[in-house]
């Protein structure tokens, strides 16, 4: 039976409701996601607005069904949320759900459903006892208390991630500060550094399957990861000195995230340094490995072919990770 937009069943499990809702959410998320390219495109505010549209569709009637939410229906909520979170952070589709939501600062929608249910319950209890609506300040206080509890539960859930371990380890201790900050926006290249999914040998070899080896092109390191580029590789010594002058000598990912979450100056200056002063956002110049930006097809993997490519630009960003251009099509 359908009543006020909710499909009810005799056991109040809402399985049919979510079975019919899931494709609508995925369709809306996919349609809106196509309007949000990784490079250029709408602003962060617009991306949040579009995410809020799908969120409102997903959480309609949450006070009714939140307590009966099953594992299968949680998965049905996670899929469209992941699509919108990846678009919000300008990340690649290979970024895990936990990392995408954490970087976007959006708690899992099943936890947000519990916030709505808790506030609704307290408002209903107040009206039942007094016969009046509660004061707005009380509702705000209840909402904030429920949200703090949700952030604590989200942080606890992030202690055991299923993927994206390095990024989650960095974000989990400061997830409340990161999600609640009023400063800083993620760029296409900054997201690559924080997620580890970008122009790095480890990613290009293990995930994107576009390189024969994960080795660094600039030094003798056998694995070119985001952390190697950020803290070790000598090719980025100048950018590294500028970065340590802003956030300190500790360039571990948790320390970088902690500094950026707590200080707007660190965020903006760190982002500028990471993207490189002479590499404009969305530019189509060559990557530091001397290769042009990559399209949807993999480049030649042999070194002889690479040697014939033009020499790299003189000043490129740390976030490009020692690799040529972009590992995947930015859209």
Report on this structure.
The two termini are 41 Å apart. The protein is 54% helix and 1% strand. The protein has 331 residues and is an all-alpha fold. The protein has helices at 15-33, 44-58, 62-65, 71-89, 97-104, 109-130, 136-157, 165-171, 175-180, 188-195, 201-206, 226-231, 237-247, 253-262, 264-275, 303-307; strands at residues 2-3, 6-7. The protein has a two-stranded antiparallel sheet with strand order 1-2. It contains 16 helices and 2 strands. The chain is globular. Residues 290-301 have a biased composition (Pro residues).
The radius of gyration is 22 Å
Helix content: 40-55%
Return the structural class: mainly alpha
The neighbouring-strand order within the major sheet is 1-2
Q: What form results from the Cα inertia axes?
A: globular
Strand content: under 5%
Helix-strand pattern: EEHHHHHHHHHHHHHHHH
**Biggest β-sheet: count, sense, barrel?**
2 strands, antiparallel
Biased composition (Pro residues): 290-301
Protein name: Reverse transcriptase
Organism: Arctia plantaginis (Wood tiger moth)
Region (Disordered): 279-331
């Amino acid at each position: 039976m359908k009543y006020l937009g909710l499909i009810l069943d005799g056991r109040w499990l809402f399985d049919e409701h979510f079975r019919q809702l899931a494709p609508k959410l995925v369709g809306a998320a996919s349609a809106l996601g196509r309007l949000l390219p990784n490079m250029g495109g709408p602003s962060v505010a617009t991306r949040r607005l579009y995410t809020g549209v799908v969120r409102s569709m997903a959480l309609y009637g949450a006070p009714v069904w939140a307590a009966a939410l099953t594992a299968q229906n949680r998965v049905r909520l996670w899929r469209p949320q992941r699509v919108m979170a990846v678009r919000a952070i300008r990340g690649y589709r290979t970024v895990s759900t936990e990392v995408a939501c954490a970087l976007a600062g959006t708690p899992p929608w099943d936890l947000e459903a519990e916030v709505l249910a808790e506030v609704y319950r307290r408002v209903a209890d107040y009206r039942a006892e007094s016969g009046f609506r509660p004061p707005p300040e009380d509702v705000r206080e209840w909402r904030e208390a429920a949200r703090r509890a949700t952030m604590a539960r989200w942080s606890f859930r992030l202690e055991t991630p299923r993927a994206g371990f390095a990024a989650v380890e960095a974000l989990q201790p400061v997830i409340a500060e990161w999600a609640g900050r009023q400063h800083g926006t993620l760029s296409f290249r900054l997201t690559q550094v924080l997620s580890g999914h970008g122009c790095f040998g480890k990613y290009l070899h293990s995930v994107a399957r576009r390189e024969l080896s994960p080795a660094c092109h600039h030094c003798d390191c056998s694995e070119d990861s985001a952390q190697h580029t950020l803290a070790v590789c000598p090719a980025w010594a100048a950018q590294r000195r500028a970065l340590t002058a802003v956030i300190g000598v500790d360039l571990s990912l948790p320390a970088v995230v902690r500094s950026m979450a707590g200080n707007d100056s660190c965020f903006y200056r760190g982002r500028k340094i990471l993207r490189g002063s002479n590499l404009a956002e969305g530019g189509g110049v060559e990557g530091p490995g001397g290769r042009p930006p990559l399209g949807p097809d993999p480049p030649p993997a042999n070194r002889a072919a690479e040697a014939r490519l033009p020499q790299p630009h003189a000043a490129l960003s740390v976030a490009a990770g020692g690799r040529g251009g972009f590992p995947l099509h930015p859209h």
